[in-house]
Amino acid sequence: RVRVCDRSKSDSLLAVQASFGDADIDWQLGCEDLALLDGIDLVVTSPAIPDHSPLLQAALQRGIPCTQECELFLASYPGRVVAVTGTNGKSSTSTLLHRALARAGIDALLGGNIGHSLLADQASWQTQQVAVFEVSSFQLERFAQHRQVYGAVFTRIGSDHIDRHGTVANYQAAKGRLAKAATEFVIHAADDPVANDFTCSASRRGYFSLEAPGPGSAGIEDGLLRVRGDSGPPTTILDQRAMKLIGDFQLENALAASLAAYWLSAEAHPIGVALATAVPLPFRLQLLTSISGIQIYDNAISTEVESTRQALLTLAKTGRRIHWLGGGKSKDGDHGKVANMIAEYATTAHVFGAAAEPMVRFSTIPTTGHETLNEAFKAALLTAKAGDTVLFSPAFASFDQYPNFRARALEFHALLRDRRVTTTDQD
Q1: In whole angstroms, how large is the CA radius of gyration of the chain?
Q2: At 103, is the secondary structure helix, strand, or coil?
Q3: Is the pLDDT of residue 5 over 60?
C-alpha cells in the first residue's frame, strides 16, 4: 500500500490526486508530521527533496530504507542502460542518442530526468534493449554505490545548483558518481578538466571535440562529423551543414550521441539521418519569429550563466546586435559574473525579477531593470531596431516568481503570441 505525502497542498498536487480516482492510495497533502512514517517499510523520495528534510532525516534515523525512482528502475530493468548527465545539454544529447538508435533499428527507450519515468514502460522492457536514461545531479548525489550502468555520457561539467549542493566540488562530485557506475564505456569532452579527472573503471573511455577525431573519439574534420574506432580511419556521420540544430554546443551534443550510438552498434548512415532531421527541443536555442525586422530567439531552458553564454556566442557570429532578455533568482549570488559575461556579447540588457536591481548595478552596458518579464520584454523590443536580435535566455533560476523554468518559458511564449497578434507590421 502506498502513502503519498507532501507539505504542499497546491492545486497541481490536488489535480494529480484526483487523476488517480479511487485507487487505494493514502494521500497526506499539506502536512509533514513525522507520524507519517509509522508503518512504512520503504521511503521513495523525490530528487527535489533535500537531505535536511525532517521526514527524510527521521526515516534514516529509524533505519527505514530510502530510495528514489531512478534506483527502482535500475534495480529491475533487464536491458542495457546508457545514462546521460552534464551541466547543460543532457536532454538534447539523450534525445539525439535515442533518435540515432531508433533510426538504426535498435530497440531503445528514453526517459529519466527528461520528464518520463521508464517505470511506466515496464510492459515493453526487453533484455535486448537500450534505455537512454537522463540523470541529474540531484539524483546522482544519492546514487547507490553498487548501482551500475552499461554506459555513461557526459556533456560538459560546469557549475550549477550550488544552492542545493553547497559547493562546486560537491556538485561535480555528484556527477562523477556516474563515471564510477559505468561498466562498458564513458564518453565526455576531450578538454573537460572536470570529466577528465573522474574515476572510471569502464573498459572504454571515449572523447568528443570540435577537432579532427583521434582513436576512440568523435570530432569534426573538414566540416564533417566523424567517429573513429580504436584503430583505423574515421567514419563520416554527416556534413554539419545538414543539421537544423545551431551552435557549437549542439555540435558537441551531436558528437557525444554519435559516438555512443556507434559504440552501441548503430551504423553511420542512420545516425546521420537522425541528426540531420532533429530539431531543437522546446525552449532550447531557436529562432521563434521576427517582429518588425527584429529576430526573437528563445533559449528559455537557461537557468545558469554558461547556457546563456553559449547562446550569445552562437548569435554573436551572425553579426547582428543582441539585446539580452533575462532574469530570475541567482543560484550563487554572483551577479557581477553574469553582468560581465552579458556585456561581452550584448548591446543592451533587460532584466526582470530578483536579479534586476543587482544586474543594473553591476552592468557596464545599457541595462533596464523590471519587476516582470512582460515589462522587460517590452523594453527590449522598444530598444531593438530592425536587423537586431532579442534573445530570451534567463541565466537565472525561476524560483523567485515561477514554480519552474517551464512556467516562465510558457509565459514568454504567451507574451510573444500576444505581441504578434497586436503587431501589424511584423514580417
Answers
A1: 23
A2: helix
A3: yes
CB 106 within 8 A of CB 83: no
Give me the sign of the Cα torsion angle 6, 11, 14, 19: negative
At 121, list the grid cell: 514502460
Question: Cell numbers at residue 65, please?
Answer: 530504507
Amino acid at 80: R
Nearest to 190 by CA among 171, 218, 168, 169: 218
Whole-angstrom distance, CA of residue 252 vs CA of residue 257: 9
Q: Are 175 and 199 in contact (CB under 8 A)?
A: no
Query: d(Cα 53, Cα 382) in Å, to the nearest integer?
Result: 46
**Residues 75-97: pLDDT tens digits?**
999 999 999 999 999 999 999 99
Query: Residue for cell digits 519515468?
Result: 117
End-to-end CA distance of the chain: 58
Nearest residue to 124 (alpha-carbon basis) of 110, 139, 105: 110
What is d(CA 242, CA 240) in angstroms, rounded to the nearest whole number?
5
